[in-house]
Design brief:
alpha+beta; 3 domains; globular; 379 residues; eight-stranded antiparallel beta sheet; 10 helices
């Protein structure tokens, strides 16, 4: 299978979040051109994932998301080769240049102004503690990179904790904030994420602590440990133990920069959608059974420009509440009416009390969000 693809095609792998965050790259322009194509009913459907074959002009020849078996896979390749030979440069638009200016693409929401934005990087390590060598077919169980954002409300809360640490306290980071910081740190497919697992796997938090203390040069030192397990019987089991260390800096506006690194061990067993048919697994992820040492790096900086927070009646783009329970929506409406009647310090005090709400809403943790709103309204 791989031999044929390499010999007859030019394989290109796209990590969409990375492409979307680097608009000045040629790959970004090509991807945007694909997304903007509106083929006729008889043409292949352009979808945001799967396997796509294009000709020299960037015209989509075939797009597929899943294969039933090996004959279907080879039939797909045969069809695309035939279409390419028939019209290698068929009439159609050339991928436009400069589709989006860097950081100004309407298809990607701007970061929340005042939030912390950056990247998480992860690597499996060898026995000497060095990063595992990456081969030509880099796999997700040995390498990851993911864009991440800590909402402004949580960044404000973190700044308050940091100032207490600079004053001489030894401050424990609340669980909700600690989870938000390290949530993306895992190897393997997204479906095995340890916190807020998308498959609703059961998460066991055996330990999750981050401590802030005064460091040198006005920095705040961060240290801690995490020992997590996420499991879905019959599908996956994921254990990860890490020791964290790092630092952050604050100024009058809040947290300016944060850096965290971690080392530890992990074990992951993951079964794709169909163990007996490897072709059906192509877009469900390979079966995996790995364990060993690993490390992560997290870098965050404050977004000085961007969208405004939509919470508390401020203009901007808020979380998607289309699937939220009716009871939660009514509670939020009551909260909005309550906020409109507040002024000055009362409004500021109430805003500080709902700092964790945007994260709960964005992650669709409806029960926790409703409980928080009702608790605040009863005060």
């Amino acid at each position: 299978m791989r031999k044929r693809i390499v010999q007859e095609f030019i394989p290109v792998g796209i990590t969409v979040p990375f492409i979307l965050s680097t608009r000045d790259r040629l790959e970004s322009q090509v991807y945007e051109a694909l997304r903007r194509q509106k083929p006729p009913e008889t043409s292949p459907k352009v979808v945001p994932q799967g396997l796509c074959v294009v000709n020299a002009k960037g015209r989509v020849l075939e797009w597929i998301q899943v294969f039933e078996d090996e004959p279907a896979f080879h039939a797909f390749l045969d069809r695309t080769l035939a279409a390419f030979k028939a019209a290698p440069i068929e009439p159609g638009p050339v991928p436009p240049k400069g589709v989006c200016a860097p950081g100004k693409c309407p298809n990607q929401p701007l970061p929340q102004r005042g939030s912390l934005v950056g990247w998480v990087y992860g690597r499996s390590l060898n026995a000497a503690g060095e990063p595992t060598r990456l081969g030509p077919d880099c796999r997700e169980q040995i390498y990851m990179q993911e864009e991440t954002e800590l909402p402004r409300a949580l960044s404000v809360r973190l700044a308050g904790l940091a100032r207490r640490a600079l004053a001489g306290e030894r401050v424990a980071v609340p669980a909700l904030l600690a989870e938000a910081l390290i949530r993306e740190a895992h190897l393997g497919p997204k479906d095995v994420r340890l916190l807020d697992n998308p498959l609703k796997g059961e998460t066991t938090k055996r330990k999750l602590t981050l401590i802030l203390e005064a460091g040198v040069g006005g920095e705040v030192k961060i240290s801690g440990e995490s020992d997590l397990r996420s499991e879905l019987v019959g599908r996956f089991k994921h254990d990860q133990t890490l020791s964290w260390r790092g630092s952050l800096s604050v100024d009058a506006k809040g947290v300016k920069r944060l850096v965290l690194v971690a080392q530890g061990r992990y074990s992951l067993r993951w079964r794709g959608a169909d163990e007996a048919n490897r072709f059906r697994q192509l877009f469900a992820g390979r079966d995996q059974d790995v364990k060993g040492p690993l490390g992560f790096g997290l870098t965050l900086t404050r977004a000085e420009t961007g969208r405004e927070d939509a919470q508390l009646g401020v203009r901007g783009r808020g979380p998607d509440l289309s699937t939220a329970p009716v009871s939660l929506r009514r509670s939020l409406e009551r909260m909005q009416r309550h906020v409109k009647g507040l002024k000055g310090r009362e409004r500021a005090r109430f805003g500080a009390q709902v700092q964790g709400l945007p994260l709960l809403l964005s992650e669709k943790r409806w029960k926790e969000a409703e409980a928080l709103v009702e608790k605040l309204l009863k005060k």
